[in-house]
Design goal:
The chain has about 80 residues and is mainly α. The chain contains 4 helices and 3 strands. The protein has a single domain, classed as Arc Repressor Mutant, subunit A, CATH 1.10.10. A 3-stranded antiparallel β-sheet has the order 1-3-2. The chain is globular, with a radius of gyration of 12 Å. The termini are far apart.
């Protein structure tokens, strides 16, 4: 079964550490507040992967360049 975590791992194989971002780092690129980024992740507007795999532990969201680009396309499409 293909998972978003697996997709992230597969994507990271061709990425550097600077190609995967925390919500705060992604917010800086997007020019939005970290609070807005968190809200958009929770609502599903900003694609992100929980590295803790949906366990009851604290979420560990990571956002790829492709996620950021998808978010920008979605915002532009809805503008």
């Amino acid at each position: 079964m293909k998972t978003s975590w697996g997709d992230l791992v597969r994507a990271k194989l061709g990425m550097t550490a600077k190609d995967v971002f925390s919500p705060r780092e992604a917010a800086q690129f997007l020019g939005i507040s970290a609070t807005k980024a968190w809200k958009d992740i929770i609502s599903g507007t900003l694609p992100a992967t929980d590295l803790n795999g949906g366990t009851k532990k604290q979420k560990c969201w990571r956002i790829t360049k492709a996620d950021i680009e998808e978010y920008v396309r979605r915002v532009e499409r809805e503008a």
